[in-house]
Amino acid sequence: MWMARNTKRDFLYLEVVKKEIEQVKPMKTVNVIQNIIKSAGVIIFALSLGACSQQWIEADAGLTSEELMQQIQEVQSFVEGGVNASAKNKFDELVALPNSYIYFVDGPSPMGQAISAASLIHFGLLGRNDYSALDIDLAKVIYVEGVTDKGLESALLIQVQFKGDSKPVTEYFESIQTPSVNDDEYVTIMGHDGAPKLALHSFYTSDGELQTVVQFQVFEIINGVESWIGKFGAMVGFGG
User: Fold this and answer.
1) Is the Cα torsion angle 108, 113, 118, 122 positive or negative in sign?
2) What spatial distance separates the first Cα and last Cα of the chain, rounded to whole Å?
3) What percent of the chain is predicted at pLDDT more than 70?
4) Could you tell me the CA-to-CA distances from 92 to 16, 117, 134, 142 in Å, in that order?
């Protein structure tokens, strides 16, 4: 069950993004998306606890570590062809490491609704630019960190079922730079085959590491430029 101290702030954030999406959804143009990013992006950061300070939140996934692994197996059972093979292999490798740390959020579930798990103004990362968080029935996001012979690496799985679809859409991403923390801000650049696709930012850090519960601000990367597209809701960590 949610125990987030940021509940009111998150509610306001979702209402603002929902209003912005509904106002411009019939148009669905690049300029409109950019306007959403500018307006909603300013609001989310204004509502945050501080653009350059540590934050803290609580959440409960209602899962044991064993149940989490069952969830991961279930999520991957829906994966068909078309995903990035390198990123999927990295995800599988990191999940299998004995000391990896796995962050998980899904909805609808005791953790919240799908729109809370993957609050994105568009799903271009899944090839669905014309769909937003208002168009999803189910969302699962899994982020994993682990130390390999290359150092600290990470991988991301996003699975979303859009309204009217019979099956979910899944994609994997892997870190293409070593995840790092600077001035309490965690940043990881992720992509496919060395090409950057997105960046995850979080101030939910302590002592140079991610906390046990985090939220990620999500930025799409196009031509080297980061554009804010939303966030992943409170993700609970397992392992370590």
Assistant:
1) positive
2) 23
3) 74
4) 36, 22, 30, 12
Residue 141 near residue 235, CB atoms below 8 Å: yes
180 closest CA partner among 198, 158, 154 = 154
Does 197 fall in a domain?
yes
The per-residue pLDDT for 15 is: 56
Q: Is residue 195 part of a domain?
A: yes
User: Which token pair is 51?
Assistant: 């653009």
Which tokens hold the place of 212? 């046990």
C-alpha–C-alpha distance, residues 145 and 152, integer Å: 7
Q: Which amino acid is at 96?
A: A
Spatial separation of the C-alpha atoms in residues 169 and 167, rounded to whole Å: 7
CB contact at 8 A, 227 and 220 = yes
Number of structural domains the chain divides into: 1
Mean pLDDT of 45-68: 55
Single-letter residue type at 123:
F
User: For residues 131 and 162, is the Cβ–Cβ distance under 8 A?
Assistant: yes
Q: Which of 42, 56, 44, 35 lies closest to 15 in space, CA to CA?
A: 44
Residue 161 lies in a domain: yes
> Distance between CA atoms of 12 and 91, rounded to whole angstroms?
33
Domain of residue 85 covers 7-239
Residue 168: inside a domain: yes
CA neighbor of 159 nearest in space, from 195, 183, 189, 123: 123
0.85 cut: is pTM over it? no
